[in-house]
Specification:
CATH topology of the largest domain: TIM Barrel
Largest sheet: 8 strands, parallel
Strand content: 15-25%
Radius of gyration: 21 Å
CATH superfamily of the largest domain: Queuine tRNA-ribosyltransferase-like
Structural class: alpha/beta
CATH class of the largest domain: Alpha Beta
Helix content: 40-55%
Length: 404
Amino acid sequence: MRHDPARLSFEIEATDGSARRGRLLTPHGPVETPAFIPLATKGSVRGMASREVADLGFRMVLGNTYHLLVAPGPERIDAAGGLHEFMSWDRAIITDSGGFQVFSLAHGGVSEEIKGTGRKPQGLAATLGIDEEGVRFRSYRDGSELLLSPETSMSVQAALASDIALVFDECTPFHADRDYTARSTERTHRWLDRCLEWHGENGPASQAVFGIVQGGTYDDLRAESCQAVASAGVDGIAIGGTLGRDKEEMAEVLGFTVPRLPAEAPKHLLGIGEIDDLVRGVALGIDVFDCAVPTRLARHGMALAPLPESRFRIDIRKGYSAGRRGPLVEGCRCTACSDYDVDYLNYISRSEELTAVRLLVEHNLGYMEQLMSGARDAISAGRFAAWGDAVLAGSSPWAAAGAK
């Protein structure tokens, strides 16, 4: 691990069991942890202006190297002064390496993988090959062949001028056999060395670098990866890879992995954002999470709600929402809940009005921030277990604050 306060520092302010409350100090301000990070995949949080995202309380967003490489291109963003200036966001930015897109192009995405459909990517985008040099793929815009290598990934992230860059890795699917997973994980470690070498010679002095732990669902490979990443010159650690075919297997993999990482390191769980997964992840000592869940659900007419029996969501397009008076979630401070009845949201969502998507994105992101704020307060009060149990049982994050 590297400790350079000029680029990043992490302070643990309170602990409750393995859960901890902290502060990630970046060149663009502090990020209170545990934190949920909204995706600004293409330089925008879907349906929201940057100022609106900040007004919800978020202090960091995540941009994606793969998508921003394809369009508008790192040169254009660099000319604008970096991603902060380009998207008018004056708080912290972390950029994904593009490694997950290697996985999704090759395997058709997480949902297809888990469903076992075997569906391959459609259209122009496709992975042409993964080897030691990197990944060759076709642009989904014009079909041109591109190479994403460790050096390319770090170069693009340097041009984006993010506060935290993630190293380039391959995210193996859970059905990959041990032999392939072992070879892929070893290659990811070699790519880690190349990323750090390039960044050390060419990267922005103020940009932190997080390594990524891989190893699939195999304990010995996860242990080896924890050791390799922790011993490298990284500023923080992300946990990547498909973690299993269901929540139970994911819990086992995380329960094995997290305790093997340095206690002082900030830990980021990549691509996980269900309500119950966040609560259980915080309990393990994970500090930062990112996921497309809040914005993706909003586009499909779904709102986050304290309803464990329906995976903590409500489909407002269903008939049971028509004619219903009152807010989506009692006590929620968002515009959708404070200004409108569920009946109206049902109507405009079924009518596919863009207003519905914006309102639901605000609600879902606001719900996530209130969830994380509640977790931070519960940790400071030494009540995280009771708070988490109440949330998982169906209390809203704010109502759970009074749980015994």
